[in-house]
Amino acid sequence: MTKDSDYSDHLFVLLHGLWGNKGHMASMKKQIKRKLPKVHVFVPSSFSGNLTYDGVAVCGDRVLADIDKISKKHEYKKFSIVGYSLGGLIARYVVGKLLEKGFFDLIEPYNFTTFASPHLGVFIDEKSAYRYVFNTYGRNYLSQSGRDLFVTKDSILPTMAEEDSIYMEALRRFRKLILYSNIVNDRSVPFFTSFIDYRDPFRDLTHVCPQYISEYEPNILDLSKPMVVRNKPYKRSWSTRDYIFISTLATVGPVMIVIALSTIAVCAQFSEKRVISFKKSRLIKPSSASESIAESTDSTTSDDFSDLGVEEESSNTDGKYEEDHHDDEAEMMQIVVEDMLDASASGISDEDGDLNLYSDSTTGNTTPESHGSVLSTSFSLDAICNDTIHDTFEVADIQLNDIQQKMSESLNKLAWKKFAVHIHGTLHSHAIIVDRRGGDPEGLRIISHYLNTLEL
C-alpha cells in the first residue's frame, strides 16, 4: 500500500447473490470507503431481486453494461471485484467478458474475491428425502440460475472452469485471488463448494476446535495448525430462539412453504421469458447482447452511480417502485428458504454455544488495523486433515460428480488465498460472512480481514 496515492483511480465492484439487492453489500461498501475514502465503489442493482433468477450470463451482461457506462466517465487504472454467493459466479463471468472486450488492456486487474460462493455448484449426491427435493426443485424451478447452480447440461459453470477459457485466463491476470468460506452453518452454500475442496473436516466439532489467526480469533482459521482437542465435549443447548423458531415453523411453516414455492415457480416463469429473449438477442446481434438485455430489464437507478460522478438518465418513479417491490418479494423468498434450510439442519453440531469462550475477542475491536499476521497461514486443509488427532475425528469426503471433480481440479490450479471462516453467533452463517444485515461484530471482523489482505 503506497502512502502517496488516494486510490481514486481504483474501481471496486461488489456483486450480491441470489434474491439479493445492493443493500446486502452496503456494510462492505461502507467499510471499504471508511478505509479508502477516495476509492470508487460500485454496487449495481441491475440484476437485483427477481432478476437474479435469470442466470450467471444474463446477470453478468447487465453488470457489464453498468461497468461500460462507468468506465466511459472515469479513467481507471485499477480494478477489483467482490462476489457474494451467486455473485461470485457472476464475477467470474464478468471478468472473462471484460478480458474478451479488451478492458484489461488499459486497466490492471488487482483483487478478485468471493465470499461463500458455490464455485462447484450446490448439487450434492446424498441419499436423503430433503436433498432429493432440494436438488429436484432447484434445478427445475429456479430458471437459468437453478440450472447453473445445480450444474445441469445448460450450466455455464463447466465452461467457466475450462483451463483455456477466457474466464480462467482473466482470473490468472489478477494480482490476488481470494476466497472466504463458512466452515459451519451455511446450508445455502456448503463448505466444499465455496472452498473448492472435496474434504470437509468440520462436520463434527464436538471434540475438536479449530485454531485461529490471532488477530481475527475466533473467526478466521489458521489452516497451518491442526485442530485441538476440547477439554470437554461440546453439546449445543437449545435457546429460547430455537423453541420459538420450531414452534412457528410447525404452525405457519407449511403455509409459508407452499406460498414461497408457488411464488418462486411463478417468478421463474417470467425469468424464462427474459432468458429466451436474451438468447435471441445473442443470435441476432451477438456484439450487442449486453446492451440488449440491459435495455429490456433496466432497473439501474441514479443512486447506483451517485458517488461515481455518473449521471443516470432514467429516473422513472413507477419503474423504481416496481423494482423495490420485486426486491422485497425476492428477499421474502430468501428468508423463507433460509429458514427451511435451517430447519432441515436440526441436530447438526455447531459452535455458536462456544461463543463465551472467546467473549473478549468477539466483543472487542472488530476492525484491527495491524495486519502482520493476516496471511501467516496455509491456504490448504492438509494440516487440519492430516495432523488433527482424536479418536472420533473424521474428515468427510464429499462425493463430487465427474463435472464437479473436473471443475475443482481446474480451479485449484489457480493461486487462491483461501480463508476458512467460523461464525459462532447464528445458525445461518451465510448472511453474516458479508455482514448482510449490517452491524454484526463477526461480519465486520471478516470484512476487516478482507480489507487487510488487499493489493492496492
Kindly describe this structure.
By secondary structure, the protein is α/β, with parallel strands linked by helices. The protein has 16 helices and ten strands. It has a six-stranded parallel sheet, with helices on both faces. Strands 6-9 form a two-stranded antiparallel ribbon. A two-stranded antiparallel ribbon has the order 7-8. Strand 3, helix 3 and strand 4 form a beta-alpha-beta unit. The longest helix is centred in the middle third of the chain and has 45 residues. The chain is globular, with a radius of gyration of 21 Å.
* Overall average residue pLDDT: 82
Strand content: 5-15%
Helix fraction by DSSP (H/I, runs of at least 4): 40-55%
How many β-strand runs? 10
Based on Cα principal axes, name the global outline.
globular
Low-confidence stretches: 286-290, 311-325, 343-372
Largest sheet: 6 strands, parallel
Largest sheet, spatial ordering of strands: 2-1-3-4-5-10
Radius of gyration: 21 Å
DSSP summary: helix tally: 16
Structural class: alpha/beta
Distance between the termini: 5 Å
Order of helices and strands: EHEHEHEHHHHEHEEEHHHHHHEHEH
Short description:
The chain is an alpha/beta fold.
SSE inventory with pairings:
Blueprint: E1 10-15, H1 26-35, E2 40-42, H2 56-71, E3 78-84, H3 86-101, E4 108-115, H4 129-141, H5 143-149, H6 157-160, H7 166-173, E5 176-182, H8 191-195, E6 199-200, E7 208-209, E8 228-229, H9 240-284, H10 289-296, H11 302-305, H12 317-344, H13 359-363, H14 382-387, E9 396-397, H15 402-411, E10 416-421, H16 441-453
Parallel strand pairs: 1-2, 1-3, 3-4, 4-5, 5-10
Antiparallel strand pairs: 6-9, 7-8
Helix pairs in contact: 1-16, 2-3, 2-10, 3-7, 4-5, 9-10, 9-12
